[in-house]
Design brief:
Number of helices: 5
Helix content: 10-25%
Structural class: alpha+beta
Shape: globular
Amino acid sequence: MGSRRARSHAVGMVIATFLTGSLLLGQDPSWMNLGHIDRGNTYFVILRDGTCLQGKIQSVKPDSLSIAVPNPNAKPNPNVVAVPRLVTVALLDALQVKDGYHEFDILYSGRSSWRDVRAVPSHSRESLSITLKSGEAVRGVAAGSTDSQLSVRRSKAVDDIAKADIALVDYIRIKPAPENLAHEAQEVMVLDPRIWPYIFNIGVQMRVPLFNSTLAEDDSALQCRI
């Protein structure tokens, strides 16, 4: 029992040290992933004060991103193209970045949330990557959850894992397809080579950390105020 507790403590310390070091160096991989998603799509940035920005991401830096949002001062005029307003969002102010209205449409999360883990749908092309406090890694498709347990399907078997044994949970999801490509795909899906990676699931996945047992847990329902 003592040996197991020592291993769990050691794993926790390694995780905490890695995360702290990454943030101090400005190298948050999940944040920098935002620099590799399509710039033509519309995204939602939820700030810690509840404000929600909707627009197109223009650039991503280690400590901030810029997003072009509609200019509230622009007067409706069919003959004039309104210039969007550019807003800079600090990494520390961002709570979530999303590509849709669903609770699970998360591209970046600035909190540790079991609620967000439970929101992940069962999808054959997406999965959960789980690191146990023992150091063991488990990966499988979401197969259900409770307040104290997470179930994942690996091959034909379903593993039930106690929340108390989990150190980290990452959501391995598909990157948002370019908006125009998603529309065109409905008509000429296999004819456009740009859609092939999404068909064959090659190079279109991204890792989104959702839960970290070493951090304070925030399971509040997020409210957007645009």
